[in-house]
Design a protein that fits this description.
The complex is a heterodimer of chains A (about 260) and B (about 240).
Chain A lengths: L1 H12 L2 H20 L5 H11 L4 H26 L4 H6 L1 H5 L6 H30 L9 H29 L2 H17 L3 H4 L4 H4 L3 H5 L11 H25 L6
Chain B lengths: L3 E12 L2 E12 L3 E6 L5 H8 L7 E6 L2 E2 L4 H7 E4 L11 H11 L4 H14 L15 H13 L5 E5 L7 H16 L3 E6 L2 H7 L2 E6 L2 E7 H7 L5 H13 L1
Parallel strand pairs in B: 3-8, 3-9, 6-7, 7-8
Antiparallel strand pairs in B: 1-2, 1-4, 4-5, 9-10
Helix pairs in contact in B: 3-4
Classes of the chains: A mainly alpha (about 260), B alpha/beta (about 240).
Chain lengths: ~260, ~240
């Protein structure tokens, strides 16, 4: 299983769609400091009200997490994961692979896990590139805080990838499945920061996995393992459950 | 140990209102190349898929190397190779990568997998194209990679569904030679085809299917004598006509 996972990961890394996703992420890293050079006053004021802070670094983190990486989390997992098993079925590759001593459920787990690993690789590379590029270009940039906050958000990205794969096999058709996954992730992303805007709803929004991924925004000044680990564990658990559901659902797919 | 590599007893498959396979019985001896002939839609592919556990029978029983195909599916697949009639190769992988990928599905240790992969690439004359993306492969080359992936686990039983269709005469000849060589090494081969000359070239015994039912099973020479046929085409037509009447 481990070797198959590794070979599948390498194959997925070489796919064209992975390189398209990588190009999108590199563009985001390079472009954001330029776009953020002079945010409009109403944006600064809104962020100060929501996060009790108008620190330029807090403004940057809000923009980076909610306006950039959350959008990435809505799109890139769909691009990477919406073909898992179904693309092999539609192209005829599954006709060969299904006759091997590996159940379709296990094959789904391998494909989804390797796609999650690809997502994580792209995500981590983006944050490391950002940590190298942003200092000096973003006022008050703190690489340690940035990487700590984004390491939590990475778990949300992995969860989104597992969700896209599972939703697509549940729908049973690639195009329709990708659309449903995109709508679902779009909804979760759209509601991710509602608890920050409306503190009364905060507890309720913790049911949203993408809110868990953005929890670092609550207290950027005092990020600690005790703040980051619980949502990380919750997201890891949700990812495992989501993959397990996909593995159960995929049994209906006929090779 | 049973002399039969494959036994099929009363096997049937119904898809809704369509009876795809109906009460099929036959057995294949170890090391034999067994022909499976019939028109398109006769039920050959569904029978092969049931033998590999890819489709669940609605009635009957089948074993491959003593393993029940519905109860010990993974054991059957571990010992079998399969080349379906219709398939595609992953376009972004190279031939070498794909063989390693398939070997990993059998949990073959990497060093062994590499050695077997290189041997198969050499055997099928694919060394020069081993690092090219599969998307650019011709029909003949695709079929060679398809056969190579079916052999990566050194199977004891090989199921081949229309393996020669789409191949030019040279490619067909080479493929049939390979299969003969495998048979001499003790591999049991089920060779399904509607190209009857290939069946005759390769097999001693055949089963003929028509409209989901097995209409004949036995040695080719005996069947020809029994049905007064000089050629395989004539034999098959006589069998079908007798069935119709």
């Amino acid at each position: 299983m481990t070797r198959l996972l590794w070979l599948d990961y390498l194959a997925a890394l070489r796919e064209r769609k992975t390189w398209i996703a990588a190009a999108m992420l590199v563009y985001a890293v390079l472009a954001i400091p330029l776009l953020l050079a002079d945010p409009p006053p109403h944006v600064r004021e809104a962020i100060a009200a929501w996060f009790h802070d108008a620190d330029p670094f807090a403004v940057f983190m809000f923009v980076w997490i909610d306006l950039v990486m959350n959008k990435v989390v809505a799109f890139v997992p769909v691009i990477l994961a919406s073909g898992v098993v179904l693309r092999e079925r539609d192209t005829g590759v599954l006709g060969l692979l299904a006759a091997k001593p590996l159940t379709l459920s296990r094959y789904f787990v391998v494909r989804t896990a390797s796609t999650c690993a690809v997502m994580l690789t792209l995500y981590a590379a983006t944050q490391l590139l950002g940590a190298a590029w942003f200092p000096g270009r973003v006022a008050g940039f703190r690489p340690g805080t940035f990487l700590a906050a984004m390491s939590l958000h990475a778990f949300a990205a992995v969860f989104a990838t597992a969700l896209a794969a599972t939703v697509t096999v549940a729908v049973g058709r690639r195009g329709a499945g990708a659309l449903v996954a995109l709508m679902l992730l779009g909804l979760l992303v759209g509601l991710a920061l509602v608890g920050f805007y409306q503190p009364d709803w905060y507890a309720m929004t913790l049911a949203n996995p993408l809110t868990l991924g953005a929890l670092a925004m609550r207290d950027l000044e005092h990020l600690s393992p005790s703040l980051l680990l619980p949502p990380m564990l919750a997201l890891a658990g949700l990812t495992a459950v989501t993959i397990a559901i996909g593995a159960w659902v995929v049994r209906k797919v006929e090779a | 140990m049973s002399a039969s590599a494959i036994t099929v007893e009363g096997l049937g498959k119904r898809f809704g209102a369509v009876q795809a396979v109906d009460d099929v019985n036959f057995s294949v001896e170890r090391g034999e190349i067994f022909g499976f002939m019939g028109h398109n839609g006769a039920g050959k592919t569904t029978t092969l898929r049931m033998l590999l556990g890819l489709t669940r029978p609605t009635r009957g029983k089948a074993t491959v190397l003593g393993h029940d195909v519905t109860l010990a599916t993974l054991e059957v697949r571990r010992a079998a190779g399969y080349l379906p009639a219709s398939y595609a190769l992953p376009p972004d992988m190279t031939a070498r990568e794909f063989l390693q990928y398939v070997a990993a599905m059998f949990a073959i240790p990497p060093a062994t997998a590499r050695a077997r992969g290189e041997d198969l690439l050499r055997r099928f004359g694919l060394e020069g194209a081993a690092d090219r993306k599969l998307r650019g492969f011709s029909t003949g080359m695709t079929q060679k990679v398809g056969l190579a992936q079916a052999l990566i686990n050194e199977p004891q039983v090989l199921f081949l569904d229309e393996p020669t269709s789409g191949l030019d005469p040279l490619g067909r000849h080479e493929l049939l030679e390979h299969l003969r060589g495998l048979s001499q090494q003790g591999v049991t081969i089920v060779f399904s085809s509607h190209i009857l000359s290939d069946v005759e070239t390769l097999c001693r015994r055949v089963a003929a299917m028509h409209h989901a039912r097995l209409i004949a099973c036995g040695e080719i020479a005996a069947l020809k004598r029994e049905h007064g046929a000089a050629t395989m085409d004539e034999l098959y037509l006589n069998l079908v006509r007798r069935q119709a009447s």
